[in-house]
Structures are given as structure tokens and as C-alpha cells.
Write a structure and sequence with these properties.
- The chain is mostly beta strands and 126 residues long.
- It is 0% helix and 48% strand.
- The chain has no helices and eleven strands.
- Strands 2, 4, 5, 6, 9, 10 and 11 form a seven-stranded mixed sheet that branches. It has a four-stranded antiparallel sheet with strand order 1-3-8-7, with no helix packed on it.
Amino acid sequence: QVHLVESGGGLVQAGGSLRLSCAASGNTFNKYAMGWFRQAPGKEREFVAACNWRCNNPYSTTSVKDRFTISRDNAKNTLYLQMNSLKSEDTAVYYCAAKMSDYLGIYRSRGDYNYWGQGTQVTVSS
């Protein structure tokens, strides 16, 4: 089991940047595939980005592909999401998620993940 805690959210102007972090408990972080999802008010939680335990083939959804970068530091038990050129439509609560897996592919579905953080609010003002 893993406990996830997101941080780094906040209020930023359009065009600005934020870096989200997701700290994982325990010493088995490198056994988990990780992902970022977001949920805007009145909308379903949607996939943003993911990487496998090695993060050798990170993947981001089309709407953020050229602006957001997912990465991880297994030595620090931490997942990151660097968000640049933020837009008002990026406003949402951002969640990190984990699934124990040595699969080298990418999990993009909410149902694939077993563990979730509490979320961190990102608000982009236009």
C-alpha cells in the first residue's frame, strides 16, 4: 500500500508555470506506475499524464502535450508535473495516482489505478 500527498498547486496567471509534486510513502515507489489526473468543477476526472516505474516513455494527453511534463525521482519517492503556458481551462483539482506494476507501458484509465492522493487545486486566472 502507498500513501500519496500532492503539493504545489495555487493561483497563477495565464501563461505562467507551476510544478506539482506527489510524495509517496514507503520504500516501494519504484514498483508503481504513476499518473496525473484532474477534475474541473462539474466535470469528470480526466487523464493528464502518466509514466511507468522507470518513466522511460512518459505520456501526456493531447491538450497538454506541449506544455506539461511528467517525471519522477524514485530516489526521492516523488512524482512531478511541470506545467508551463497555463491556460484558464487548466483550472482543476489535480490528483496523482499509483498502480503497482512492472509493465513498461502506460495506464491512462482512472480504473487502472488503485491509490489516489487528496488532490491539489490549480487555478489559472485569465
